[in-house]
Every structure is written in structure tokens, then in C-alpha cells.
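Hello,

Our lab assistant flagged a job as stuck in the queue for most of the afternoon. It eventually completed. Since we weren't sure the result was trustworthy after the delay, we are filing this so someone can double-check. Below is the sequence as submitted and the structure that was eventually returned. Let us know if re-running is recommended.
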Amino acid sequence: MRTFVLHSLCLMMALLATARIVADTVTQDGVSYTLNADNSGYTLTSGKGLTVTDLVIPNEINGLPVTEIGDNAFNAYQGFNGNLFTVTIPANVTRMGENAFTYCTKLTTVTFEKGSKLKSMGDRCLAQCFQLSEITIPASVETIGHSAFNGCHTLKRVIFENDSQLKSIGNWCFQFTEAMTEMNLEACQQLQTLGDCTLYFISDTEWGSNRVETLVLPSTLTSIGENCFASLKQMKALVFLGKKNWSDYTVGSYPFFNSKGTVYYNRDYVFPESFSGGTDQEPYSIKTAGVENPVGLANVGDAKYATYALHTATVDYGKVAGLSAYKATYNSSRSTITLTPVTTVAKDEAVVLKADTAGYYVLTGAEDEGTKSSDNDLKISDGTVSGDGTTIWVLANKDEGVGFYPLAEGVAVPYGKAYLQ
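-- returned structure --
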């Protein structure tokens, strides 16, 4: 009996020695993290005591992942002091809660760690962040809630990572984003739903406008909300990639109300001859144009040269009138760059474009997938590439003429843009 008791006591002591005691609540930098109900990870529940202006949320606490940013965590309408300038969100976070950063008026930068597992961005999660000028949405995100960026008046660029899993964008998501110039929805090859007033801007006293000139809508899109593209007065080209008739979409009332520009669609399908209406004071008329197998849209500026790469399809530049494509190759001493004409360009291959005139060009898809050129030295930036003054070269128009010039130290090559190294 004594032997049995001794063995049992030893076993109990061993279990106590190896058991991990995990705190229910942990505070770091004045931010509170609470253990999830299933003890599998932590949720950032409150930033009311924040003691830093540049917050790096930990990927783990006590060996467990930080998996969520809770509702109202940094909501300046709910007691947070708003003194947050930048935030880095770790890869383990899968959910950004409702009103997570609402009215963080000093917030300039939201960075998601590489390999982000974020699935959902809740309603109003970044609404009224007045200083936020651009954001890159991780490919893992599947849903963006209503009013998520509503009232972000200085937001200019929204970049969706390639292979985006995004399926829906909620109502009023980008309303009151009058500074917006760029949004690459074509990267969202699983997108099905755009909610009401998604890109609609209207001021308190008069019809307003954001600055978006182009949008490319993926072929997976099926539902377009009421006033979805309203008041896009700077719009030059909106391209539907889908092989659908207009009647195959579920469309709310007045999707293009008070907007301008041309809607391009696959000419093998049927669209209205125009979208028009409005009032005597605010009439609008959207042209439509059928084109052959549209797969993308390229913008060539006044210099008539640009670099371009399409992630989603192979392009037949031989069918794009007024536009030529070239691969770029270094010589062995890397002192000379040679441009060689190409016609069929595989997806994820960058090229130099030369246009007859500056403007937007709807790109035609190739019949086969194509193969990347083995001697094309152009690379595509993942958003982390920066100049060092010597080894990173980008296309630019300077006094000496259009050519590749070294990028200044610390200047980033924007996500998806091409460079030489």
C-alpha cells in the first residue's frame, strides 16, 4: 500500500509540474487580451489603456495565438482616447470585430503581417479613420462588413492581394471616400456580392464625387447593390469580365446614378445600349461598349510608356489596338536593357507597354495560357520592395527621357508594379 501511495504522489507532482497556468486576462502596452472560452487563444478586447502610439499586436501570448480583435476594441466613441498612429496586425488574427478601430482619427497605417489568416472585417471596423490613406487587404479575407471604411475621407488606394478569397463587400463600405483613386477588384476572383452604395459618395450639401477613374469587376460577380457605383463622376472605364448578359446579374436600383464614363463588357453577351436617368439638375448617361474577351485594363500615362502585369489571365496584345508589349532583358554586364516585342503574355508576367496615345486600354484574353519568357528580367513587387539608390530600377519619365532609373533609397515599389534588379 505504501508503494502505491508513493507512486500516486509522484504522478500527481509530475502533472502539477508540467501543467501550464494561463492567465485569463493579460495586459501589454496598456492593451487587454482575454483568453477565449475554449482556451485556444486570446482576443484583444480593449485598447482603452493604450500606452504607445505605434502598436504591434503580439502574434502569441503565453504560447497561445492572438486570434481576434474584439468589437469596439479601439472605438473612440466607446472610451478609447484615439491616440493610435499605426497598428501591425499579426498573422494569427482571423477576425477584426465590429467598430474595432472606429473614429481612430490619428490612425495613418494598418499593416497585416505576411501570411495573414484574417477571414472577416466587421461592420464599421475602420470607419472614420480620417488619416488612413491606403491599405492592403490580405488574400485570406472573405467578407468585409457594411460601412467598414465609411468616412475615410483621405483613403486613396485599396489594394487586394492576388488570389483574394473575398466573396462579399457590405453596404456603404466605401461611402464618403472622396479621395479614392485606385481599387483593384479584379484581384478578387471569388467576389460575388457588392452591397448597396459600395462606392457611393455624396456630401452634406451637394452631389459629390470620388476620384476613381477605372474599375474592373471579376467574372464571379453576381449581385450589384442599389446605387453601387453612384456618383463616380471621374469614371473613364468600368469593365465587366464576366461572360454574362446584364440580365444575369441581380442589380439594385440605379447602380450608376449620377456617374459618367463607359461600361465595357464581353461583346458575345447582351448589355443595355446605355444607362441613363437622373433629374433635370443631375442627369447622367453611361455609355456601353462590347469588346472581345476582356480580361483586364491597362493605364498608360502621358509618357506613353508604362509597366504592367496581369495576375488573372494571359493577354493577347496583338488584339489590343494602339498598344504594344515588350519584355526587358539585361545584358551580361547589366549595363544595357533591351526591349523585345511580345504578343502573348502569360499571367504573372510583367511587360513594358508602349501606347500610341495616353489612356486606358481594355485587354483581350489569349486563347491559350501561354508560357512566361525565360529571359524577361522584369519582376513584380509584393509591396515590400524598396529602393536603395543603386540596384532597384523603375520606369520613369525624366528630363533625360523615358527609361529605367534607380529608385531612391527607402521609396517603395507599389504592390503589383514592375521593376528591374
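-- support follow-up --
The delay was a queue issue, not a problem with the job. The result is valid. The CA atoms of residues 303 and 397 lie 7 Å apart. Residues 2-18 form the longest helix (17 residues).
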